[in-house]
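Why do we care about 3D structure at all? Because function follows from shape, and shape follows, mostly, from sequence. That is the central idea of this module. The next example makes it concrete: a single protein chain, its amino acid sequence, and then its structure expressed as C-alpha cells.
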Amino acid sequence: MSKLISVGKILNFHGIKGEVKMGFTAGREDLIKNLRKVFIFINNVKTEFDVQSVRFHKNTAIIKFAQLNSINDVMNVKGLLVHINDDVLKAGLQKDEFLINDLIGLKVYDTAGIEIGKVSDVGENKASNLLEIQKNNGLKFMVPFVKEWVPKVDIADNKIVVNLIDGIEPNSNSAEMDNEV
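And the structure:
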C-alpha cells in the first residue's frame, strides 16, 4: 500500500491565474517537473490536484494546478504541504538510493550473518548519511551509509549487512565504544 510523502510546500500565489510558488528540496527538480498528480490536505481532507504545468524561478517551482484558477483559490492552500504517493518517488530512485522510512526498522547483520540489531534512525554529516544501529542489548552506534561499510541493503528481505571494523564490536557492553564511528 502506498504512503504519502511530502515533496514541497505552497509558499504563495504567482500571478493572478491560480499558479502557486512551491518550495522544495534542492536537487529534486526532475521529480517536481514530472509531477502529474499530487495531494494536499485541506482541513484534514486529502484532496487530489492535477498538475498542468511546472517551471522554476528563483529556487521555487511555479506550478499550475487544474483545480486552482485564481488568487483566492491559491489562498486556500497557501502554507500547506504537497504530497505524492511514495511509489512515484521510489520509481525515480537510482539503484543504491533508498527512502529513509524504508531503512528504519531493518534488521542489521554483520558479514558473517550474525544479527546485530536494527536500524533505529538515519542521520547525516557532511561526508555521508549515517545509520544509527540499535544493538540487541539496547546500545546504539553509528555506521556511515556508504558501500564500504554497508555492502548490502535488501528492503524486500528486511535486511542490511554491515562491514564492522575493529573498535565496533557488536557484543561489547562498553557504551564508550558504541559511540565510535
